[in-house]
Amino acid sequence: xxKRISLFIIGVISSCLLLAVTAFGTxxxxxxxxxxxxxxxxxxASEKNIQQxxxxxxxxxKDILELLxxxxxxxxxxxxxxxxxxxxxxxxxxxxxAAIDKYFNNxxxxxxxxxxKGSWEKVLVINSNTDK
Length: 132
Prior knowledge:
Blueprint: H1 2-24, H2 27-30, E1 31-41, H3 47-63, E2 69-74, E3 88-94, H4 97-105, H5 107-116, E4 120-131
Antiparallel strand pairs: 1-3, 1-4, 2-3
Helix pairs in contact: 3-5
Protein backbone atom coordinates (compact mmCIF):
# COMPACT_ATOMS: atom_id res chain seq x y z
CA UNK A 1 0.00 0.00 0.00
CA UNK A 2 2.80 2.44 0.90
CA LYS A 3 4.48 1.71 -2.42
CA ARG A 4 1.27 2.54 -4.34
CA ILE A 5 0.83 5.81 -2.43
CA SER A 6 4.47 6.73 -3.08
CA LEU A 7 4.10 6.02 -6.80
CA PHE A 8 0.88 8.05 -6.87
CA ILE A 9 2.57 11.03 -5.17
CA ILE A 10 5.56 10.83 -7.51
CA GLY A 11 3.16 10.77 -10.47
CA VAL A 12 1.25 13.81 -9.20
CA ILE A 13 4.47 15.77 -8.56
CA SER A 14 5.83 14.85 -12.00
CA SER A 15 2.59 15.93 -13.66
CA CYS A 16 2.62 19.25 -11.80
CA LEU A 17 6.22 19.92 -12.82
CA LEU A 18 5.44 19.10 -16.44
CA LEU A 19 2.44 21.44 -16.39
CA ALA A 20 4.49 24.22 -14.80
CA VAL A 21 7.26 23.95 -17.39
CA THR A 22 4.72 23.83 -20.21
CA ALA A 23 2.77 26.81 -18.89
CA PHE A 24 5.65 29.02 -17.81
CA GLY A 25 8.58 27.76 -19.86
CA THR A 26 12.12 27.59 -18.65
CA UNK A 27 14.51 30.45 -18.03
CA UNK A 28 16.39 29.70 -21.23
CA UNK A 29 13.37 29.88 -23.52
CA UNK A 30 11.61 32.88 -21.99
CA UNK A 31 14.39 35.43 -21.95
CA UNK A 32 14.79 37.88 -24.79
CA UNK A 33 16.46 41.17 -25.56
CA UNK A 34 14.56 44.41 -25.91
CA UNK A 35 15.83 47.40 -27.85
CA UNK A 36 14.24 50.82 -27.57
CA UNK A 37 15.36 53.48 -30.02
CA UNK A 38 14.19 57.07 -29.50
CA UNK A 39 14.56 59.81 -32.09
CA UNK A 40 14.34 63.58 -31.79
CA UNK A 41 13.82 65.16 -35.20
CA UNK A 42 15.51 68.39 -36.19
CA UNK A 43 13.27 71.44 -36.22
CA UNK A 44 13.90 71.61 -39.96
CA ALA A 45 12.60 68.06 -40.58
CA SER A 46 9.47 68.19 -42.72
CA GLU A 47 6.39 66.05 -42.18
CA LYS A 48 7.46 64.18 -45.32
CA ASN A 49 10.87 63.44 -43.74
CA ILE A 50 9.24 62.24 -40.53
CA GLN A 51 6.76 60.03 -42.37
CA GLN A 52 9.59 58.58 -44.46
CA UNK A 53 11.44 57.71 -41.23
CA UNK A 54 8.33 56.03 -39.78
CA UNK A 55 7.61 54.08 -42.98
CA UNK A 56 11.23 53.03 -43.47
CA UNK A 57 11.60 51.83 -39.89
CA UNK A 58 8.35 49.88 -40.06
CA UNK A 59 9.64 48.16 -43.20
CA UNK A 60 12.72 47.03 -41.26
CA UNK A 61 10.35 45.22 -38.92
CA LYS A 62 9.05 43.25 -41.90
CA ASP A 63 12.36 42.69 -43.72
CA ILE A 64 14.84 41.74 -41.00
CA LEU A 65 14.25 38.23 -39.64
CA GLU A 66 16.24 38.76 -36.43
CA LEU A 67 13.62 41.28 -35.33
CA LEU A 68 11.01 39.11 -33.56
CA UNK A 69 8.54 41.88 -32.77
CA UNK A 70 8.28 45.57 -33.50
CA UNK A 71 6.07 48.44 -32.39
CA UNK A 72 6.47 52.20 -32.58
CA UNK A 73 4.72 55.31 -31.45
CA UNK A 74 5.03 59.04 -31.21
CA UNK A 75 5.86 60.18 -27.71
CA UNK A 76 3.35 61.88 -25.42
CA UNK A 77 3.60 64.30 -22.52
CA UNK A 78 5.17 62.86 -19.39
CA UNK A 79 4.93 63.51 -15.68
CA UNK A 80 3.80 66.99 -14.72
CA UNK A 81 2.77 67.45 -18.37
CA UNK A 82 6.41 67.79 -19.38
CA UNK A 83 7.08 67.91 -23.11
CA UNK A 84 8.72 64.72 -24.35
CA UNK A 85 12.45 64.88 -25.01
CA UNK A 86 12.14 62.60 -28.07
CA UNK A 87 9.55 62.56 -30.84
CA UNK A 88 9.19 58.83 -31.58
CA UNK A 89 10.09 55.55 -29.91
CA UNK A 90 10.64 52.19 -31.59
CA UNK A 91 10.29 48.99 -29.51
CA UNK A 92 11.94 45.80 -30.74
CA UNK A 93 12.40 42.27 -29.44
CA UNK A 94 15.30 40.01 -30.36
CA UNK A 95 16.28 36.49 -29.33
CA UNK A 96 19.77 37.43 -28.15
CA UNK A 97 22.56 39.99 -28.47
CA ALA A 98 23.91 38.31 -31.59
CA ALA A 99 20.54 38.97 -33.26
CA ILE A 100 20.79 42.66 -32.32
CA ASP A 101 24.25 42.82 -33.90
CA LYS A 102 22.98 41.12 -37.08
CA TYR A 103 20.07 43.55 -37.21
CA PHE A 104 22.29 46.58 -36.72
CA ASN A 105 24.75 45.49 -39.41
CA ASN A 106 22.05 44.39 -41.86
CA UNK A 107 22.41 46.35 -45.13
CA UNK A 108 18.73 47.36 -44.97
CA UNK A 109 19.24 48.88 -41.51
CA UNK A 110 22.39 50.66 -42.65
CA UNK A 111 20.46 52.05 -45.64
CA UNK A 112 17.72 53.25 -43.26
CA UNK A 113 20.34 55.16 -41.25
CA UNK A 114 21.93 56.69 -44.35
CA UNK A 115 18.56 57.71 -45.80
CA UNK A 116 17.10 59.24 -42.61
CA LYS A 117 19.93 60.50 -40.39
CA GLY A 118 19.77 63.99 -41.87
CA SER A 119 16.43 64.48 -40.11
CA TRP A 120 17.64 63.46 -36.64
CA GLU A 121 18.75 65.87 -33.96
CA LYS A 122 19.59 63.08 -31.52
CA VAL A 123 19.11 59.36 -31.00
CA LEU A 124 18.92 57.27 -27.82
CA VAL A 125 19.35 53.48 -27.92
CA ILE A 126 18.66 51.24 -24.91
CA ASN A 127 19.13 47.46 -24.97
CA SER A 128 17.99 45.28 -22.07
CA ASN A 129 17.37 41.75 -20.91
CA THR A 130 13.76 40.86 -20.35
CA ASP A 131 11.82 37.88 -19.15
CA LYS A 132 8.47 37.15 -20.72
